[in-house]
Amino acid sequence: MNTNTEHPLLDLSRDDIVPYFMWDYRYTVGQIKEMLAEDDEDQRIWLMAKIMRDARYSDVWKFISLQDFLKYRERLMKGRLGWKKDFWQFLYSRWIQYGIVKEDNDSYHIAK
Q1: CA distances from 24 to 18, 51, 86 (A)
Q2: d(CA 90, CA 57)
Q3: How far is CA 52 from CA 6, 86, 87, 94, in A?
Q4: pLDDT tens digits along 18-63
Q5: Consecutive H or E run containing 42
Q6: Of 6, 23, 32, 82, which sees the most CB atoms within 10 A?
Q7: If phi over 0 gives left and psi between -120 and 50 gives alpha, with beta otherwise, what is residue 65?
Q8: Span 81-93, pLDDT tens digits
Q9: What does the alpha-carbon distance between residue 36 and residue 8 come to, in Å, rounded to a whole number?
Q10: In this structure, what are the phi and psi dihedrals at residue 111, rounded to the nearest 5 degrees?
């Protein structure tokens, strides 16, 4: 067990653990990584939204790359993030404001 965590469910370094944000599913960290790597785009977007909605901000980036967030941002923001939608929209607007990402005319944005 990672000694930096308070509880085993917070240890995301082990593929056999069901993480805290999967409270309503029994997917392990390893299964989550596999699902995010598969070609099923609808499943990937569903799982990304679940992680963005239920995981701590710092843990989101252990599973989702900035490039994937930017690539699927439009679809993620449409009814999938629940009460966290405003949070992610705020972050995205600040990333643009501070030049972390560049906004372009399509749904894919380029990260610096």
Answers
A1: 10, 12, 23
A2: 13
A3: 21, 12, 10, 17
A4: 999 998 999 999 999 999 999 999 999 999 999 999 999 999 999 9
A5: helix 41-54
A6: 32
A7: beta
A8: 999 999 999 999 9
A9: 22
A10: -85, 145
Structure token pair of residue 23 = 């409270």
One-letter amino acid for residue 35 of the chain: M
For tokens 């499943």, the residue is 43
- Using the Cα atoms of residue 63, residue 67, residue 68 and residue 69 in order, give the sign of their dihedral: positive
Query: What pLDDT does residue 75 have?
Result: 95
